[in-house]
Amino acid sequence: MARTTRMTQTPRTPSRRRRRAVPAALAAMLTLVLVAAGLGGLVVWQNSYELREEAVTIRQGGRVLNGVLALPAQGKGPYPLVVFVHGDGPVDATHDTFYRPMWEAFARSGHASLSWNKPGVGGAPGDWLDQSMDDRADEAADAITWARRHPDVDGARIGLWGASQAGWVLPKIAARDPGIRFAIAVSPAVNWLRQGRYNLLAELSRDGASDMEVAAALARRETGLELLARGASYEEYVRAVGDPEGMTAARWRFASKNHTADVSADLPALRGTPVLLVLAGHDVNVDIAETEAAYRRLLPGPALQVAHYPDAGHGLLDHAIEKSSLRLTLTALCAPRALFAEGFLADQARFVSRALAAGS
Fold first, then answer.
1. Distance of CA 24 to CAs 15, 28, 31, 65, 189, Å?
2. Dihedral sign computed on CA atoms, order 157, 48, 92, 341
3. What predicted TM-score, i.e. pTM, was given to this entire model?
4. What are the structural domain ranges in the chain?
5. What's the CA gap between 345 and 334, in Å, rounded?
6. Does the domain formed by 51-185+264-359 have CATH 3.40.50.1220?
7. pLDDT tens for residues 51-69?
8. Which distant-in-sequence residues (6+ apart) come within 8 Å of 327 by Cβ?
9. Of the candidates 90, 139, 138, which has an alpha carbon nearest to the alpha carbon of residue 117?
10. pLDDT digits over 144-198, tens only?
């Protein structure tokens, strides 16, 4: 009979398995911590900008504005100044940090930037929905008067930057202040009513609306316009259309003040001033063909420059990025400068430098 040999092993006790598992768990936890720290460090680094920000309180013309003056990181002023004029909505001084990559690009070229909270935003007094475009121009003119007294600002070299709705404000500012040296108009419209219709139809088309849905939306719009034209109250509007669909009483009041806005009468105030018109290829808010035609007609000559960004949306963000909420969030956190269309940040700074050099 063959002899069998029993092989004996020391059994693995639960305590020994736990002792081996603990280092593995610690290693995994340490890896996660290091990855999180690395990502956190990347986010902090990418959202740190090469500039100096100074919180300012602008008191001028009986109004108080809470703002930010962004200065070059190195050197001593006075610096040329870019005054930021917001588009629509409750925008704070940094536009939820959206402006900072632009401020940095300007700062690296030796320019300061000035922006402020809209009335009612971030604790600022007032309500931006109570403003007309003329009110907004008066506000900006007061801010410029204040800036000319600031020791870090070269009062003889001040220009404007404005997006979207600010297109109706920039020429009004220039009419009030002949010392404006340049203007950058980003995605501006020409006529409030035509812009609204274009935007409505573009969004309906984008969303795949049926012919019936388009007809209903246009009919509803016409009802609203008729009521605006005769100065109807918000209550009349609600009775006429039923569900207000986001049109609040304050927004109706704002539309009542501004629905007749048209840049045609004001834009000639910028004739002879260097103007950079910035247009986006994926703009569903503004008819860029109408805008470009109007600017070329009303601002003839070499002072007008037109820059097209075919891959950008209305806010000059890269369209491929902004159409994905996940990609938009990750880019905003990890590479905020890459949010914008390629070349946009550098092109603006280059335009301001050349405009000021040409006029010096």
1. 15, 6, 10, 57, 61
2. positive
3. 0.86
4. 51-185+264-359, 193-258
5. 17
6. no
7. 999 999 999 888 999 999 9
8. 320, 321
9. 90
10. 999 999 999 999 999 999 999 999 999 999 999 999 999 999 999 999 999 999 9
